[in-house]
């Protein structure tokens, strides 16, 4: 064990310092950090590749760089040419760039294609103790493996491409300890929505969050990924969970995971990453899992959430002026009145998918509720797997048939209705229950209204037509 007790984040950081910045405290210069894995998608890479081309540079480590197509993918027919010109150009540009610079790319429809944050873990590329970056804010997802995983800007994307390093200032650390156990029907999505409601969308600013405690330890890897995914919605730089047997079980045997003696050696070193007992965090938050119930958002940021069993809050009752004004504006945009029971809010669309909740366990949860039911009259339901492999597995397990039998649309892999960059969009005034991670104005299409929910709530809502949990179906 190290002499000075360290947190998980500090250990991973220290293992990646190439050059330590001079100075002390706030005046400390950034460190130069080595990057183990660089994930690339079509939206944030074109300028970076252009920059390299202009400077006459190549990629420092094409072998540590992987690209996929996700944001602009039409999920209704992934094998047809993309109709939208902007999307098609974006995807064609990625293909040309990857070819020119020697980057491995999973194109639309390939069995390994999917949302960037779903395919990294799925391929075993994301591993404990790594530094993972991508020009995408939800890169925090990969922190569920005990890696420092961050979204970066386009100029940083170019820097990583050229040097495989990044110049970074150390973060502050925050422990989010979740004691107890989640009740049946309460998922990691409810937990993270409750965390963000508690600390606020700016509560994590400048921090790496480490989720710990009994309730976190009991979660599957996929549930942990949902939590780390949304760290960014609390304003954090990254979210992390220490690796344990659940992590190793998930990772073992995946295509890029170490094998044989290398695997054993890796596990020994990964076991040393956990935060030392005496390590000190810059900030600590405690949550009691036992008290949580299904949680949904009513407003236009992920922190504007409340228990499903409660009512739309009254802005007038909010002491903080900023909060009050933001709630007033949100309710107006959302077309909601204070005091309305949340369970009475009717939706037009249910979206299951995204890098938050587009994995196989999410689809299983949805199918378990939908089986033997029909999607309510007048409600459109999209079920969009996060990757083509998730789709294949869901088909093999008969989940696809359950979705179609219930009247849902069973799609191919992509970001889909998580954001309005492809044909899957809400029209103005339409309201959705969505398993994605962002609910700001227009996120799912201009004028669209989004309620963030768990997969279980999404499924029950599809059946009843109003925001509901499976318990309401009895
Ligand atoms: C397009 C991309 C840059 C963006 C992100 O960084 O998160 C997107 O994935 C999102 O979820 O809004
Ligand atoms: S699924 Fe949504 S949040 Fe995730 S990368 Fe795609 S657009 Fe961003």
**Largest β sheet strand count, sense and barrel closure:** 5 strands, parallel
The helical percent reads 25-40%
| CATH class descriptor name of the largest domain | Alpha Beta
Q: Assign the CATH superfamily of the largest domain.
A: Aconitase, domain 3
How many strands?
19
CATH topology of the largest domain: Aconitase, domain 3
CATH architecture of the largest domain: 2-Layer Sandwich
Q: Tally the helices: what do you get?
A: 16
Total tally of structural domains: 2
Tell me the radius of gyration.
Answer: 22 Å
Report the portion of residues in β strands: 15-25%
How would you summarize this macromolecular structure in one to three sentences?
With 474 residues, this protein is of the alpha/beta class. The relative contact order is 0.13. The longest helix is centred in the N-terminal third of the chain and has 17 residues, at 85-101.
Structure in words:
Pathway: Organic acid metabolism; propanoate degradation; Amino-acid biosynthesis; L-leucine biosynthesis; L-leucine from 3-methyl-2-oxobutanoate: step 2/4. With 474 residues, this protein is an alpha/beta fold. It folds into 2 domains: 278 residues, 2-Layer Sandwich (Aconitase, domain 3); 179 residues, 2-Layer Sandwich (Aconitase, domain 3), CATH 3.30.499. Helix content is 32%, strand content 16%. It has 16 helices and 19 strands. The strands form 5 sheets. A 5-stranded parallel sheet has the order 5-4-3-6-7, sandwiched between helices. Helix 2 crosses helix 5, helix 6 runs parallel beside helix 8 and helix 13 runs parallel beside helix 16. The termini are far apart. The model has no long low-confidence stretch (mean pLDDT 97). The structure holds 3-isopropylmalic acid and iron/sulfur cluster. Iron/sulfur cluster binds next to helix 12.
């Amino acid at each position: 064990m190290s002499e000075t007790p360290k947190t998980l984040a500090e250990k991973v950081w220290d293992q990646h310092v190439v050059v330590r910045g001079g100075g002390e405290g706030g005046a400390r210069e950034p460190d130069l950090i080595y990057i183990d894995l660089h994930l690339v998608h079509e939206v944030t890479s074109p300028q970076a590749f252009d920059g390299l081309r202009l400077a006459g540079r190549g990629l420092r480590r094409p072998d540590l760089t992987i690209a996929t197509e996700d944001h602009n993918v039409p999920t209704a027919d992934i094998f047809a040419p993309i109709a939208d010109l902007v999307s098609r150009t974006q995807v064609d540009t990625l293909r040309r760039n990857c070819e020119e610079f020697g980057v491995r790319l999973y194109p639309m429809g390939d069995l390994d294609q999917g949302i960037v944050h779903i395919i990294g873990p799925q391929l075993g590329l994301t591993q404990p103790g790594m530094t993972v970056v991508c020009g995408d804010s939800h890169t925090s997802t990969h922190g569920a493996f005990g890696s420092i995983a961050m979204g970066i800007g386009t100029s940083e994307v170019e820097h990583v491409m050229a040097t495989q390093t990044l110049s970074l200032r150390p973060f502050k650390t925050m422990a989010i300890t979740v004691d107890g156990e989640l009740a049946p029907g309460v998922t990691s999505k409810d937990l993270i929505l409750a965390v963000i409601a508690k600390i606020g969308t700016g509560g994590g600013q400048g921090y790496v969050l480490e989720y710990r405690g009994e309730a976190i330890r009991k979660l599957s890897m996929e549930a942990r990924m949902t939590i780390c995914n949304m760290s960014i919605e609390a304003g954090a730089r990254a979210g992390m969970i220490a690796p344990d047997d659940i992590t190793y079980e998930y990772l073992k045997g995946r295509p890029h995971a170490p094998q044989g003696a290398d695997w054993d050696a890796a596990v020994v070193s990964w076991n040393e990453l956990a935060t030392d007992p005496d390590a000190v965090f810059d900030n600590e938050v405690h949550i009691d899992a036992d008290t949580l119930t299904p949680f949904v958002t009513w407003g236009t940021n992920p922190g504007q959430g409340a228990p499903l069993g409660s009512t739309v809050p009254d802005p007038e009752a909010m002491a903080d002026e900023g909060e009050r004004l933001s709630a007033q504006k949100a309710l107006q945009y959302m077309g909601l009145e204070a005091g309305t029971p949340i369970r009475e809010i009717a939706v037009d669309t249910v979206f299951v998918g995204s890098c938050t909740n587009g994995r196989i366990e999410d689809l299983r949860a949805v199918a378990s509720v939908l089986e033997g039911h029909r999607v309510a009259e007048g409600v459109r339901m999209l079920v969009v797997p996060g990757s083509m492999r998730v789709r294949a597995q869901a088909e093999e397990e008969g989940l696809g048939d359950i979705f179609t039998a219930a009247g849902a649309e069973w799609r191919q892999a992509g970001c889909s209705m998580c954001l309005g960059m492809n044909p899957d969009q809400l029209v103005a005034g339409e309201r959705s229950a969505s398993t994605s991670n962002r609910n700001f104005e227009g996120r799912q299409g201009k004028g669209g209204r989004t309620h963030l929910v768990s997969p279980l709530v999404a499924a029950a809502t599809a059946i009843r037509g109003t925001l509901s949990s499976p318990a309401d179906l009895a």
